[in-house]
Specification:
Shape: globular
Oligomer: single chain
Number of strands: 17
Number of domains: 4
Number of helices: 29
Radius of gyration: 28 Å
CATH architecture of the largest domain: 3-Layer(aba) Sandwich
Strand order of the largest sheet: 7-6-8-9-11-10-15
CATH class of the largest domain: Alpha Beta
Helix content: 40-55%
Bound molecules: thiamine diphosphate
CATH superfamily of the largest domain: Thiamin diphosphate (ThDP)-binding fold, Pyr/PP domains
Largest sheet: 7 strands, mixed
């Protein structure tokens, strides 16, 4: 082989403006490029936080994909797309916006169609890649075009219901689709369930491995194998099936290649080139290590799946604010442990998010009362319903945004049958660095229209525990919203209070303006009220609404006869949310009182550096809230200010 030029001194990565430059690079330089990519990812994520482990695990795979295929003509669909950082770096996104990834003015931490022509499909929720890729491939087959379509899916994501639905359809629709199964044996936590066991068996079974790797030489060593080897591929396939059970992907009509080391660039190239030529849809099964190349991430795959800023040399998280209050998630986990200790019927269910939701504490203390069902939100909801139907008291902790996927089981199975299941909807409100795929801004709207639901949000962690206690004993479907991150730092009572469902709490009296606020907006409402009183001499009351459904109708109707302006505040879209519920109630009551609704606008909210900057950009900073209320008040005084309103 002719000797290859040694790598130039300058940084290789910076010379890659797009996939064509990558293709020009001598193969021997790729390990060094891989190292540079890892260094860049660590430099950026150690400051911004991000999906460290998933990206470090697919450096070689992404290099091989971009050398084998030709993006953007060929289409890559990355499942979840949290592992898309290398793809970004190789497709013209090395500028300073990469340094600010997941921050205001930086690139998204996921793939989004508007960011680059190389991103044919945006994602953030798991399990969508196979269906979307199959759609792209089928459209190509129907409309015409020679491009390849490649879906990259993780071992945990493959367990999603929709991924299995897609698998069931692939062979029926196309004979040209490459599915890369990136198997690192981890979800965020350890991958769970039968599919995880099956994949593990594929990886570890030595016969399987040998047969799949090198069928030819395996056959050669069998008695009479030499003649088998000379036969057609169908005969060889039958011989193979005799020795090892045929693999599940083959049952679905896909060809199967692997499993092999997903960090071995030569193997990757060889197998991907083979897959590219396949005239049958094909699964390429690669084994990768989450966090490859960085010991701290290899040692803590869960923490480094998605992390906040950290010190590269130690891998430790950067110290947070001194005396920061505990997270809502910690308070929730601790409450579940306390409740489980007294109540053997209590069960906690998570869909692959034990760490994120705080439910890992229940697993550690009462494993028999804890269920991680994998990335399977629909199943989680139905499973909880089944537990409830038999007298258990299930608490399903699911991020608000992921619960969207389980809407039909919520309506058809939980609410229609009035099953006593408690839902703790985590990340209600913003997930600021993640962006539009992860914000929990729609749940009040999608839940309050369904009969039998109770929807509530606490103003602090003590009230959250009261709500949890109330919900578990309510005997009907209950939905509790909790935000991401820090609570208020209030003391949590030893004995939680049973709240009256649909009863609000008056926190501040005032007769001109009354603010009805929900959840974390209660604190903002108190601050706005104080400023309105101090700066503008207005009498402003504040109500902690507690319940978006049922509303405290009696209190609302009474206040509508006394005040001149009602303001609603919610960490949720304005359309269809809590404020809309207040409007509907007042309209039904025939109350003509003006209502100013404060909440998120009717557009998708991208990622940002934090809650504050996203709020500021959307008219929800404390100052903007103060001004909106004042402006509305002043507009009323210019027209006729309603007085002596009657209420039916
Ligand atoms: C519907 C949905 N539920 C949960 C999540 C949270 N989540 C993001 S990535 C992930 C694990 C993905 O594991 P895998 O597919 O194996 O990829 P890896 O990160 O290991 O590379 C989970 C649970 C999500 N994004 N979408």
């Amino acid at each position: 082989m002719p000797s290859q030029p040694s790598p130039p001194d300058e940084n290789l990565l910076s010379g890659i403006a797009g996939p064509d430059d990558l293709k020009k690079l001598p193969f021997e330089h790729l390990p060094r490029l891989a190292q540079e990519i890892r260094d860049r990812i660590l430099a950026v994520t150690s400051v911004n936080g991000g999906h460290v482990g998933p990206n470090l695990g697919v450096v070689e795979l992404t290099l091989a994909l971009h050398r084998t295929f030709s993006s953007p003509k060929d289409k890559f669909v990355f499942d979840v797309s949290h592992q898309g950082y290398i793809h970004k770096l190789l497709t013209g996104r090395q500028d300073t916006r990469f340094d600010r990834i997941r921050k205001a003015d930086g690139y998204s931490g996921f793939l989004t169609r508007e960011e680059s022509p190389h991103d044919i499909w945006g994602a953030g929720h798991a399990g969508t890649a196979l269906s979307a890729a199959l759609g792209l491939a089928t459209a190509r087959d129907r409309i015409g075009g020679g491009e390849h379509v490649v879906a990259v899916i993780g071992d945990a994501t493959l367990t999603c219901g929709i991924a299995m639905e897609a698998l069931n359809n692939i062979a029926a629709n196309t004979n040209r689709l490459v599915v890369v199964l990136n198997d690192n044996e981890w979800s965020i936590d350890k991958n769970v369930g039968a599919m995880a066991n099956y994949l593990n068996e594929l990886i570890t079974n030595p016969i399987y491995n040998r047969v799949h790797h090198d069928l030819e030489s395996f056959l050669k060593h069998l008695p009479g194998g030499e003649s088998l080897r000379r036969m057609g591929s169908r005969t060889k396939q039958s011989a193979k099936n005799f020795f090892v059970p045929s693999c599940i992907f083959e049952k679905y009509g896909l060809r199967y290649l692997g499993p092999f080391d997903g960090h071995d660039l030569e193997l990757l190239h060889r197998n991907l080139h083979f897959a590219k030529k396949s005239d049958q849809p094909i699964v390429v099964h690669v084994i990768t290590k989450k966090g490859k190349g960085y010991d701290a991430a290899l040692g803590h795959p869960e923490r480094f799946h998605g992390t906040s800023a950290f010190d590269i040399s130690t891998g430790k998280g950067k110290p947070g604010r001194k005396n920061a209050p505990p997270n809502y998630q910690d308070a929730f986990g601790a409450a579940m442990v306390r409740m489980a200790a007294e109540n053997p019927k209590l069960a906690g269910i998570t869909a692959a998010m034990p760490g994120g939701t705080g439910l890992g504490m229940l697993r550690d203390n009462f494993p028999d009362q804890y269920f991680d069902v994998g990335i399977a939100e629909e199943h989680a909801v139905l499973f909880a319903g089944g537990l409830a139907a038999r007298g258990m008291q299930p608490v399903c902790a699911i991020y608000s945004t992921f619960l969207q996927r389980a809407y039909d089981p919520i309506v058809h199975d939980i609410c229609l049958q009035n099953m006593p299941v408690t839902f703790v909807m985590d990340r209600a409100g913003l997930s600021p660095n993640d962006g539009a795929t992860h914000h929990g801004l729609f749940d009040i709207a999608y839940l309050r229209c369904v009969p039998n639901t109770t929807v509530m949000q606490p103003k602090d962690e003590d009230e959250m525990v009261d709500m949890l206690h109330t919900a578990v004993h309510a005997g009907s479907p209950q939905f509790i919203r909790i935000p991401r991150g820090a609570a208020l730092g209030v003391r949590v009572k030893d004995d939680p209070e049973q709240l009256e469902i649909g009863r609000a709490e008056v926190l501040r009296d005032g007769h001109q303006v009354v603010i009805w606020a929900l959840g974390p907006m209660v604190a903002d409402a108190m601050a706005a009220a104080e400023r309105l009183e101090a700066d503008s001499n207005l009498s402003v009351g504040v109500v902690n609404a507690r319940f978006a459904k049922p509303l405290d109708r009696a209190l609302l109707r009474e206040q509508a006869t006394k005040a001149s302006l009602i303001v609603t505040m919610e960490d949720h879209v304005r359309m269809g949310g809590f404020g809309s519920a207040v409007l509907e109630e007042l309209a039904d009551a025939g109350a003509g009182i003006p209502v100013e609704r404060i909440g998120w606008p009717d557009r998708f909210i991208n990622h940002g550096s934090g809650v504050e900057d996203l709020r500021a950009a959307n008219g929800l900073s404390p100052d903007a809230i103060f001004r909106s209320i004042l402006a509305r008040w002043e507009s009323l005084s210019r027209v006729t200010r309603p007085s002596e309103l009657t209420v039916r």
